[in-house]
Amino acid sequence: MSVTVRVPAKVNVQLAVGGVREDGYHDLANVFLAVGLYDEVTVAPAETLTVTCSGPGADQVPLDRTNLAARAAELLAARHGIDPAVHIHIAKDIPVAGGMAGGSADGAGALLACDALWSTGASRDELLDICAELGSDVPFSLVGGAALGTGRGERLTVLPVGGAFHWVFAVADGGLSTPAVYREFDRLNEGVDVPAPVASPMLLDALGTGDAAALAGALANDLQPAALSLRPSLADTLTAGTEAGALAALVSGSGPTTAFLAKDSDAAAVIAETLLASGTCRSARVASAPAQGATIL
Ligand SMILES: C[C@](O)(CO)[C@H](O)COP(=O)(O)OP(=O)(O)OC[C@H]1O[C@@H](n2ccc(N)nc2=O)[C@H](O)[C@@H]1O
Ligand SMILES: Nc1ncnc2c1ncn2[C@@H]1O[C@H](COP(=O)(O)OP(=O)(O)OP(=O)(O)O)[C@@H](O)[C@H]1O
């Protein structure tokens, strides 16, 4: 018997970052949108807890107990007095260390899959609590769709989305470390009085009406200057996508993946092709949004 869960990647359509808190995290107004690029997590009973991974970038994914999928299984098992003896296989399609919450997706996926395998009867709130313990982005991977994340991004309010949005994601060579990007944000803002983060009403309205042009005008990522500072070549990718007709271009979360909003699926295909030909990225992926959260297949 095995259980497979499909989990989407995310793009942050607004990432407003406040000052650093006493616990080292930053207060956020984080508007998440789930996009149709997916990892699949399969769990099956085994002698001990083991993890395997296949797909692009699989060699960069840890297979020990630091893997978020393994941690999810252990946390759920500990709460319910279960032996976490499962084999977890991750079929990766979300860029690794790309700012698209790939590890978070695997954590949420393994949690939902183990919950089903073990029939724990855990409530949705308990699963969301475990997600928040695993990482700031993990609750959103479970929920999907669109949501505003406050606190360190883990406290979610579901947002209405009025239509489909077409995106292109340019995958960069090599990853960026999320803590390093937040540290660079702090360095760039040294001596600045960083305002409290607030969600943009215009952006929420654009999501709610499904208006791509309006959304393009409201996209904002406060981590973008930090990601560009650590990886200046990303500016060339942003320019290439904009010249190819994207309505807007931005760094996805902590990067280095860059995201391009297209007016429709045909425009997205042209942007992807042009980006790839530009030589400014390793690959270019088309995906539409919103995508469903973690789902048992
Ligand atoms: C950049 C984003 O992906 C945008 O959604 C997230 O804010 C990062 O979420 P995540 O990868 O789940 O991050 P976590 O595993 O919770 O934290 C990793 C590290 O990122 C930094 N971090 C994360 C979230 C936050 N609100 N403030 C932070 O400063 C901290 O250095 C933390 O030690
Ligand atoms: N299941 C997992 N898949 C990928 N990376 C993982 C996983 N579990 C732990 N990691 C570790 O997390 C690091 C970040 O990988 P991940 O793909 O989650 O980055 P990310 O997409 O930039 O995350 P985020 O957008 O949430 O900041 C990796 O370098 C790896 O060491």
UniProtKB/TrEMBL annotation:
Residues 204-275 form the GHMP kinase C-terminal domain. It holds the Pfam family GHMP_kinases_N. Its EC number is 2.7.1.148. The keyword Transferase applies. GO terms for molecular function: 4-(cytidine 5'-diphospho)-2-C-methyl-D-erythritol kinase activity. Pathway: Isoprenoid biosynthesis; isopentenyl diphosphate biosynthesis via DXP pathway; isopentenyl diphosphate from 1-deoxy-D-xylulose 5-phosphate: step 3/6. The active site is at K10, D137. It catalyses: 4-CDP-2-C-methyl-D-erythritol + ATP = 4-CDP-2-C-methyl-D-erythritol 2-phosphate + ADP + H(+). Residues 67-145 form the GHMP kinase N-terminal domain. Keywords: ATP-binding, Isoprene biosynthesis, Kinase, Nucleotide-binding, Transferase. ATP binds at P95, V96, A97, G98, G99, M100, A101, G102, G103, S104, A105. It is an enzyme of class 2 (transferase). It comes from the Bacteria. Belongs to the GHMP kinase family. IspE subfamily. NCBIfam families: ispE, PRK03188.1. Catalyzes the phosphorylation of the position 2 hydroxy group of 4-diphosphocytidyl-2C-methyl-D-erythritol. This is 4-diphosphocytidyl-2-C-methyl-D-erythritol kinase.
